Amino acid sequence: QYVYQFLNMMKHAWDNYRQYGWGHNELKPIARKGHSTNIFGNSQMGATIVDALDTLYIMGLHDEFREGQEWIDKNLDFSVNSEVSVFEVNIRFIGGLLAAYYLSGQEVFKIKAVQLAGKLLPAFNTPTGIPWAMVNLKSGVGRNWGWASAGSSILAEFGTLHMEFVHLSYLTGDPVYYNKVMHIRKLLQKMDRPNGLYPNYLNPRTGRWGQHHTSVGGLGDSFYEYLLKAWLMSDKTDTEARKMYDDAIEAIEKHLIRKSNGGLTFIGEWKNGHLERKMGHLTCFAGGMFALGADGSRDDKAGHYLQLGAEIAHTCHESYDRTTLKLGPEAFKFDGGVEAVAVRQNEKYYILRPEVIETYWYMWRFTHDPKYRQWGWEATQAIDKYCRVSGGFSGVKDVYSSSPTYDDVQQSFFLAETLKYLYLLFSNDDLLPLDNWVFNTEAHPLPVLHLANTTLSGNPAYR
Ligand code: DMJ
């Protein structure tokens, strides 16, 4: 009966978006109108529709899926004068469209994904081939975020294109996408890494690192995830990616992973030579990643990585359990007596993020320990109690306050990821088995490619 709860939540999120935000990127569930942020430029590209499609499909909400498909067919247009985030558009739109295509077989999704990818390609026209963070879909002019260190591009952005771009080359027979992401990989391989760690910032003009900050949370996270998943989606033939993952994780374990006084394993952040004992909600995805990478690990350390995944899951559950709302804060500290608790006011929010539930799901798949379902159910009840409003679902500004205020945003990743991972957590393992599917960083499932050789050069289409 659990799955009905998730169907009900998905329907509530979708129906309200359809009623009040249709065609806009996201929904403001309290103001009951459309919402957007700068990652989507000034466009109305229906981000929620594209992000939600595969979740609707998996849940069997076929009428809603068809509505979404119809909107995409008739209205989704990329020839707009709008400056968008290359990374966000890739993981949400290209990933969402490709997953919808693979699940449903409907050509329109593939066609739109390829059109959109063509619009992103000018972002790679930099002196190094490291793409700009943003590109204008109409003019093709690219630039970087003003806040990024020394004009740099961001590791988690240019390093989170691989899965989708390899699939684009596979589906179209055009190697251009594959070549772009392999060029990034080759360039990264050649660079020196301080302490074996990848800094979060790389300047696309000079090819030099920016500030020496390293994070498994925001700005770094999905780069590591995509190294592992590149190997998995190649049917484990892309051993170069697996090696890069193993090397990176070894350095991360050595320099960033510690145990708190209270015995909680956490992943800190490296900032100019010292460890900041703070972990982000985003970092919690790493529990699932360690578990997913356990099989095939160097020196046969599968047990060790599964254990590490379990410890991260436990720590992240504690970050939820130590709040008033039983929802996790954006960031939490392990310092001066503080354990898994947010200290700064502006780190106490919960914006419907998926990472902790994502880790519960992977841990469930690999261990079937019932505590992961129990923890997922606790989070579900908290979301339903504190984030559900009559016009949809909203983030909350302070998880330690018993009378929280809303941020009035229904994030598209809530439908793409949070509800999908919850649904999968309570479904059988034969729904999207991990031997056949690899989830992109926005939880869009893409099939394992059974190619003899991941350089694609073995495939006649690429010779
Ligand atoms: C999502 O867009 C993706 O999971 C991304 O990798 C990180 N941030 C959000 C969810 O929190």
Automatic annotation (TrEMBL):
Classification via Pfam families: Glyco_hydro_47
Involved pathway(s): Protein modification; protein glycosylation
Top EC group: hydrolase
Disulfide bonds: C284-C316
EC number annotated for this UniProt entry: 3.2.1.-
Residues annotated as signal peptide: none
Catalytic reaction list: N(4)-(alpha-D-Man-(1->2)-alpha-D-Man-(1->2)-alpha-D-Man-(1->3)-[alpha-D-Man-(1->3)-[alpha-D-Man-(1->2)-alpha-D-Man-(1->6)]-alpha-D-Man-(1->6)]-beta-D-Man-(1->4)-beta-D-GlcNAc-(1->4)-beta-D-GlcNAc)-L-asparaginyl-[protein] (N-glucan mannose isomer 8A1,2,3B1,3) + 3 H2O = N(4)-(alpha-D-Man-(1->3)-[alpha-D-Man-(1->3)-[alpha-D-Man-(1->6)]-alpha-D-Man-(1->6)]-beta-D-Man-(1->4)-beta-D-GlcNAc-(1->4)-beta-D-GlcNAc)-L-asparaginyl-[protein] (N-glucan mannose isomer 5A1,2) + 3 beta-D-mannose; N(4)-(alpha-D-Man-(1->2)-alpha-D-Man-(1->2)-alpha-D-Man-(1->3)-[alpha-D-Man-(1->2)-alpha-D-Man-(1->3)-[alpha-D-Man-(1->2)-alpha-D-Man-(1->6)]-alpha-D-Man-(1->6)]-beta-D-Man-(1->4)-beta-D-GlcNAc-(1->4)-beta-D-GlcNAc)-L-asparaginyl-[protein] (N-glucan mannose isomer 9A1,2,3B1,2,3) + 4 H2O = N(4)-(alpha-D-Man-(1->3)-[alpha-D-Man-(1->3)-[alpha-D-Man-(1->6)]-alpha-D-Man-(1->6)]-beta-D-Man-(1->4)-beta-D-GlcNAc-(1->4)-beta-D-GlcNAc)-L-asparaginyl-[protein] (N-glucan mannose isomer 5A1,2) + 4 beta-D-mannose
GO molecular function per UniProt: calcium ion binding; mannosyl-oligosaccharide 1,2-alpha-mannosidase activity
InterPro entries: 6hp_glycosidase-like_sf, Glyco_hydro_47, Glycosyl_Hydrolase_47, Seven-hairpin_glycosidases
Keyword terms, alphabetized: Calcium, Disulfide bond, Glycosidase, Hydrolase, Membrane, Metal-binding, Signal-anchor, Transmembrane
Domain of life: Eukaryota
Compartment(s) of residence: Endomembrane system
Active-site positions on this chain: E88 (proton donor), D221, E330 (proton donor), E355
GO terms for biological process, alphabetical: carbohydrate metabolic process
Family: Belongs to the glycosyl hydrolase 47 family.
Function: Involved in the maturation of Asn-linked oligosaccharides. Progressively trim alpha-1,2-linked mannose residues from Man(9)GlcNAc(2) to produce Man(5)GlcNAc(2).
PANTHER family reported for this sequence: MANNOSYL-OLIGOSACCHARIDE 1,2-ALPHA-MANNOSIDASE IB (PTHR11742:SF40), MANNOSYL-OLIGOSACCHARIDE ALPHA-1,2-MANNOSIDASE-RELATED (PTHR11742)
Protein name according to UniProt: alpha-1,2-Mannosidase
Species of origin: Chrysolophus pictus
